[in-house]
Amino acid sequence: MADYKELASNIIENVGGAGNVDKVIHCITRLRFYLKDEKKANDAAFEDMAGVAGSLYNKGLGQYQVVIGPAVADVYDEVVAQLGDRVVDVEATENATAEAEGVNNNKPTNLFGWLAYGFKVLIGTITGSMIPVIGLLAAGGMLNGFLTILSDPKLLGWVSPTSTTFTLVQSMAMAPFYFLPVLVGFTAAQHMKSDPLTVAAIGALLIKPEVVAIATGKATSHLLGMPINASFFGLPITVPNYAYTIFPIIFAAWLARPVGNFFKKHLPVAIRSIFQPLFTIFIVGSVVLVIMGPVITLLSSGISVAVNALINWNYALSGLIIGGLYQVLVIFGLHWMVVPLIANEIAQQGQSPLNALVNFTMIAQGAGALAVFFKTKNANLKGLAGAGTLSAFAGITEPAMYGINLKYGKVFWTANIGGAVGGLIAGLFHLHMYGFTGSLVGFPSFASSKDNPHNLLIFVIASIATIVVGFLCTYFFGFSDKDLDKKTKTVAKKNVFKDAVQ
């Protein structure tokens, strides 16, 4: 569980202190204070307070409300721990929660509605699990961008890509991404009330060097187009590379809760501390290895075949579709089967039209975060959006996507409109890309070649179009500071995995 002592203390201080609080209750997103004097509350402090999305005084209810989001119950518990039981009103809290859920749990009435609803709550789960590590990812993304500038011979070329300095600095930058299953396992477990250390251990299992060696080794056979590279108690399975992925470990965090709770309930106290994590790691780890591997491999393989066929059929139309939708694959880690296609194109042709299109999806996510940076008045969100923008323009989209764009829903899609426009321009003018490094910092990968002298100019034009369209669509249609409160009432307050367990 996260430590909310400091946040609770700051909230109490800025509602006028402990002596100004008569009662405090909570609903699904807000702390609701009954104050002796609401004028003592410091509205300005809540605008810049980390962990708080805003505050307001509801005159009709006589409540000073502090918007927290999905962690509201945990923050409430800490507030009560500091103020004492005198402020508790259990019945009022239950009524407020039930009323809020009744207002916000409007169920879909058709198939499309259910699909949209399911996608929203799933994204709520993913972003809720990712938010705590966004700062690490943003730092890694920017460091990797600086390293590219320092090491690329077409730029500064001060650091040799073959030097140990390059290797060590790149390891600093990419470690948070490589070890995402461990980091997200811990935070997802906190989010879904399973044991964080147990789930982090399962994440470590997925990226253990021996498991990675199996994933990258030669397949012994194939089944339904899947490479069979391992056996588990005689059962042939496929083990993909889980490094950089998040969805398998989020699934593990969901499953670890009921499994762990079962053994917590049925094991004697004397042996529980050892055998509860033992059984949970083995059962949940086995299910992830046996089930998630084939699911990810089948979906990724199908997507890679479809993408390759689309590019061979019509490059311009491919640019429009891939530019607009590719980052959806990134959300679920399904883009990794596309990477071998890019590597194969560069190896055989010296350039990759697919990577040229993917490039603009990164720039587009940065443009969306940039629009949020300029539009929001929330200092914390502005800082996160700025870091996400820089990281995306340096070729790492996760901080922008998970910290900003997906979290506020429409931003992700309005940004993707820019990606679609950039991809369409790239396709129409047959843009070439001669390397892996993408986004704005990867412009040397588009340096003019003898067979395409205007290539870099095309890249610049398409990049500008991507930024302008993605920025304007997001600024005018994709984001408002009102979304800071709105999102806590809908997606962030729940997740599909919690509902399934309950």
UniProtKB/TrEMBL annotation:
Domain of life according to the entry: Bacteria
Chief localization: membrane
Active site, renumbered: 27 (phosphocysteine intermediate)
Matching Pfam families: PTS_EIIB, PTS_EIIC
Annotated PTS EIIC type-1 domain residues: 137-493
Gene3D superfamilies: Glucose permease domain IIB (3.30.1360.60)
Presence of the UniProt keyword Kinase in the record: yes
Matches recorded under SUPFAM superfamilies: Glucose permease domain IIB (SSF55604)
Transmembrane segments: 121-147, 167-189, 196-217, 237-256, 277-303, 315-342, 354-374, 386-404, 411-436, 456-479
Keywords: Cell membrane, Kinase, Membrane, Phosphotransferase system, Sugar transport, Transferase, Transmembrane, Transmembrane helix, Transport
Annotated PTS EIIB type-1 domain residues: 5-89
Entry annotated with the keyword RNA-binding: no
Subcellular localization, as worded in the UniProt entry: Cell membrane
Membrane topology: Multi-pass membrane protein
UniProt name for this protein: PTS system beta-glucoside-specific EIIBCA component
